[in-house]
Amino acid sequence: MTISQSRTYSFSLSEWLLVGPACVLLFVWSLPGTIALRLALTLVLLIIALGQCRKSGIFKGFLADRVLWLTFLALSAWIVIQAVLFGIHTDAALKEFWGQWVRSGITGLIGFMVAALITRRQPERSGPLLAMAMTLTLAFQIGLHDVDTLWRWWHEGKLPFQETRIVENRTGISLLTNLLMAILCSEVMARMLYKRAYLPLSQAWLGLLFAMCIFATYVVGTRFGTMGFIALIISCVLVSLIAKRRSLKTTKLLAIGIIALACIGTFGWISVKSDQRWLTLIDTIHLALDTEHQRAWRDSSQPLPQLPSGVIVEHSNYMRIAWAKEAGLAIIDHPLGVGYGRNAFGDAMQLVYPDYASSKNCHSGILNFTLGVGIPALLMWLVFAGILALHGWISFSHYGNPAGLTLLFVVSGFFIRSVVDGNFQDHMFEQFMFLALMFNVLARQNQRSPSGESETGRDG
């Protein structure tokens, strides 16, 4: 869709009743003290979407994604069965199932239905506008953070590094930044590789949004947010090389690789220099893996060990590595899981160490999930995420649909981050399910013109 075309199309009243609350929900998800508001918005959206689905008869759209939904339902059934048969705290696991898993599934269902309803009328125009609404919502939140940071820099005389007052914590703004970067990178890839625009944004606005994301990533200074940014750039390079492998000359391939490596190296070097935690990581690994003789990882009252240099280990580095090792060992001991929940790691540790007195979450979403519901659930989750990623890749590589690449980036980004971050819970998981299922519908439109050019149009 071109920018001029977007100005001739607008949502109907019934569509605004979906898009408006969806944007508000996406905005408030990361804000502190908004649980009641989130629940209210979720309920309102669910009622409106179900009502419109019943009238429009688009439930047949679920048949096209029946394998995806059946996988999710099978995984949900396993979580309940596991809690009843193998859970060490069955009641707590079932409560977590309803409060965490089912709620996230509902937000995914809402995202799916909203996209299906919006795109039933002129999908080549309404789809990009829906994606644009999500993009602007994320950009507004990140823009507020950047403006507040610059204001404080001007007022206080120094850059408020690793701080945010807009969302609940640094991790929250980092996740939002990664999501927006996924959408923007997909748009740039489509314009570069296929000469078509999806979002009704000029090049100048795209550049501004990129600058906002880069500034937020640097200032917030979360290591995993930085790693996600670098992984996204690497993914873009790989997508470019795969898509144009037959038409690019060797010299151009080398030039692209060198430029990408230079950009990644520069940003990585700046990030390492601005975060001292990277500098002691290697020495910390040796100490953290010695969980048999070290006690600080399982007893928060114990002092942290010292590095060979005499410096106290960095808390986050030490704890995450030690917890990851013990979580892996516990999965081997309990391959069917100990019961679904955010505290699965703590429950497993108390079976091994009755005096365990530290975090009940190992800060690795995928490890905590596997420890809770077992290896069968992990395999089903990989199938579910793999289906989404495959839908995204086919949509982009075969049809040049940028929504497909966005879906691929959102899914892969969430999965990579779940290895090192506890994003498999609360609003982070709800947000992922909402956007992933929404972009799955947009990616599955797969519309092309007879000439082979996407109906989404050329760059305006």
Alpha carbon gyration radius: 23 Å
**H/E topology pattern:** HHHHHHHHHHHHHHHHH
Oligomer state equals: single chain
Indicate how many domains the architecture comprises.
2
Unreliable sequence segments: 447-460
Structure characteristics:
17 helices; O-antigen ligase-related domain-containing protein; 460 residues; transmembrane helix; membrane; O-antigen_ligase-rel_domated; transmembrane; globular
Overall description:
It is a single chain. With 460 residues, this protein is mainly alpha-helical. The protein is built from 17 helices and no strands. It has 2 domains: 3-274 and 364-443, no CATH class; 280-352, no CATH class. The longest helix has 35 residues, at 365-399. The radius of gyration is 23 Å and the shape is globular. The termini are close together. Residues 447-460 have low confidence and may be disordered.
